Every structure is written in structure tokens, then in C-alpha cells.
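SEVERITY: medium
COMPONENT: batch folding queue
REPORTER: lab tech (J.R.)

DESCRIPTION
The queue accepted two submissions in a row. Attaching both inputs and their returned C-alpha cells so the on-call engineer can compare them side by side.

ATTACHMENT 1
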Amino acid sequence: MQLFADDPLPPGLWLVKWIDRFQLGHDSESPLALLNDDNVKELLGTRPRSPYASDPAPAQEPPMFVGRVIQAAYLPLLYVGDVIEGAGRVSRLPRKSRTVTLTGSTTIADQRIGAEIDAPPDWTVPTPFRVLNRFEYQLIGGIAGVQESRCLVFRHKKTEYILPKIVIFRAFYGLSSKMINALCSDAWIRSAKELISFNNYESGIFTGVDAATGTWNIVLQPGVPLHLAAPLALLWFDPHGRMQADSLYTDSLIQNNGKRGSEGRSWFASANIPHRSEPNPFKMIFQGFELRARKPSQPQEFERFLVTAITGSSWSLPDQVIMRESHTSNAIGEVQHPAEGNRPYRPGKPPVEGDPEALATSTSDPDADESINVFSLDSFAFLNEPKIDKQKKESSQKFGKPAPQTPSGAASLVSAGSPTYAGVAPAPADALERMRARSQQFEYLVHALEKLQGQGAIQGFPHVSSPACRAAPGCASLANRNQGL
């Protein structure tokens, strides 16, 4: 998808250095840096001069930075480290992968990336030591306010991690354009209805907690993928998850002194992890960049790591049962009643796979009557899968077969905004984070290896059997990345 079609970049290759700063209309600013022979060695912090110098003039012109504003609903398709040419993504810088574990005793600091912090004992230069330093990762010069972006800073083993809150937002709240639009538009108590159906159904399906069993029952609105049932249930039913979802909108109001609409200013993502790290430790799989050491020739107390993506995590409620269903489900109930007339809802045109070369606009809302164009770049995986099943209908109505809906076809111009019936408009786009789940064939392979180990034929298979491997993007080809939970 050509994400920057509204304002293409000047000639050359451009690197996405940061993403944050939501604005009116739920846009998000993406500062980029020009990639050329002079700048490429500096962009991740390898400076042409020592960071311990007393700030002399640089030996060459600093990298050129520009900013671009796109709809926040496109976030699942853009990462720090992506390389852009013209209006679209052409590549991505290599990233390292790390697995971390948070517990109730983990010390986590909530910081601005530009905040001054206590310097290490060997820091002897007169310049301040910051959460993210220029010699580690050259951030933005001239893009207003980026230093106000917030992050979590914590240590795990011998590494200090810098986890931007926009990365948390994308991983746990920004799994689809629909989720982003809902969570950025209003308080969660009101915007949840855009994703979750709270209707009373004669069929017996419902959204609520089963008083007898404690099961979470959830019905999804039309167009919301079934694999989002577990993440949405966590944000709605779990007290901790709901509190964190509520805080997204509340914090944006606080940053704007309670003003929104035409009087509101921009705000920065302030998402917190919706999963608890006690009583069960909480694991996450990070991807990102190892930051440049203060003194590369000397051993450091710990290394520093900038997280650019969370590609997997544990499910913090392993015993919680979730029953899901969709508002437009055609599932047959235990009792089926004949019915006359048309179905009481309009199914709409079937979704289509989006054209990779489609132009994305951030200045218009899409036409609700057109097929949704689905775009997906990466995927997320739970290290231990939630206990999730399908709600059973007690009854259903048997309507006549409706006239088949013909998809509109992949569109050349799309928008991820809120659908409108105002007339001629771009086709709707849904940027979607897929959920990876272990395929049955892969489970058969693991079972066979376990038998061989039990018979003494092999000593073990740690790189296959570990949950982190099973959830990793490069795991065995038998794992189906696009399989739903």
C-alpha cells in the first residue's frame, strides 16, 4: 500500500525513525530520515565523532528529517525501521529479536524519551544523559515535540529495554483499523459498541459473563475478525485490561487539558500493557535495535535495546474460558425456526484482499457501501493460546437464500477512516494484524519428536518445542501464519 500517497516523499530512500503524536482526526505523525551514503552510518547512532567530545560542529551535514501525517488506522502497516521510497514501503532494516519476562517485582519507569536521567558512573561529558541519547539513536531534529513521546524503561537480565508506548498501543490496542478508530474516538465504555455487540439475541448468544461458570461471552460486530475476540474480551471483561483501555482516551484529554475537537492539541500515545504480570510472569517477544554502546571498546554494565515491535506475548489468563460469536453468524441453532422475508441485517459486500499498490488517502473517509480492502503486513502470536471456543446458538431462524453479494474488487484508492454514506468516496481499508496459531500438523511433529525423545533416539529439540520458537515469525514452515485462533 502506498501509505504516503497524499504527500509523497522527495526522491531517495527514507527511513522511518519514529511514529507518534496523534492529532485531530486521529492522525499520527511519522518522522523520516533521508538515507544516503553520507548519512547511513549515522542513522542508528554511529556518529562521525565521539559522543564524549564537547559538542564540536559535526564533520558533515546532519541527516535530513521530514515529517508525514497519516491516519492512525494505518499503524499495523508501518514500523520504525521501514524504508520508504516515494509513497510506499520498499524494505525494512534488519531487527534483532529478544524474549523478556516481566514479574510483579520488575521495576518499570515511565519516561519521556527526551527526559534527562541519572548518568552512568563513567559518563564524564558535560552534556545530559537522556532516556534515548543521540549517540545511541539519532532521533529527530526539527520535528516538533517528538522528545515528548513516552516509553517504559526496564531491565531484564543484562539488557535495559526502551519500550515506546506507541509500540504497546500497536501490539495490544491497534490490531486492526477498526480497533484504532474506536479507541481513539471516544471513551472505551462508549466506543466498545463499535467492535462488540451488546444486543439481545433470541438465539441465546450474548456479550457478558456467565454467572454460573465465569465464562466470558463475546459477540463481535460485523466486519470484526474472529481472532480479535480474545484481545477484545481482555479489554472489556478483565478489570486491569479495561482500566488500561479506559486510560487511552482519558490520558489524551489530560494532555489536552480536557479539550478535544477544534480546540484540542496533539497528544502522544500513553498505552500501558493490558496484561498483568502477576501471579503469572508475563512474557513478550520483542524486535528492535541494539543501541550503540557509550564506549564500544570497553565492556558495559548492560546493553540497551530499542523496541520497535512486539510480535508475541503470553496470555495472562490461562484458565479463563472465552466463548465467541459474530453478529452476522450463519451458524445453525439447536432449534431452527422457519422465517419469512429477508434477514434483519444487511450483510454488505464481501471483503477483498487489498491491492499492494493501492493509494492510501488520509484526507477522506471511505464509502461504507464498498467492499472492505484488507491489508496485512505482520502477525502476532500468543505463546500460550487462550481457552476460546464458539458460542452455541439455542435457536436460529431459517431465511431464504439471499441474493449473492458481488465484491467490489480491489480498489486503487482506499481510506482507513470511519465509513460514511455521504456519496462518492474511497473504498474502505482495514489494516489488520494477523494472529499466528500453531497448525495441527506442527503439533503432530512435536508429538512425534516427544516419542523419539522418550525412546532415547534423540536427546531433545529445544528450538522446536519452546513456546517462543513456536510463536516466532521464522518458526517451522508447517506453522500456518494466517490461521485464526
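ATTACHMENT 2
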Amino acid sequence: MSYPDPFDQSLPYEVTNLINDKIVLYLRAIEVVNVETQGTFAGTIAIIIAENNEAVKKRRRKNEAVTE
């Protein structure tokens, strides 16, 4: 079994693409198909993703302000 290189800069982009292209699409589909049982789960994951995206945006803005 091979493990990813922890210094590989492309890894975060691959994970982001996987989340946006596969997981979010899946969550939207299960929410539409079975909102009664999956709606809460999908909604919770959507909130977590949105919070993490906001944290990343703030970190990027902070880093850009420091480098200027």
C-alpha cells in the first residue's frame, strides 16, 4: 500500500475536487431522493463544508494581507 506524500502540494486540490465533484453531488442527490431520512444528514454536511470554506477564505485573505 502506498501513502500520499505529505509534502505534495496537489493533494489539497485533489481532496477539494473530490469533495466538490463527488461528495456534494451525492449529498444533493440523496437529499432530493429521500429528504425525510437523509435531509438532516445532508444539511449538516452542507453546513460543515460551508463553515470550512469560510475559514479557508479568511485564512487566504489574512495571508494575502501579510504578504502585501
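NOTES FROM REPORTER
The chain has one domain: 12-67.
No errors were logged for either attachment.
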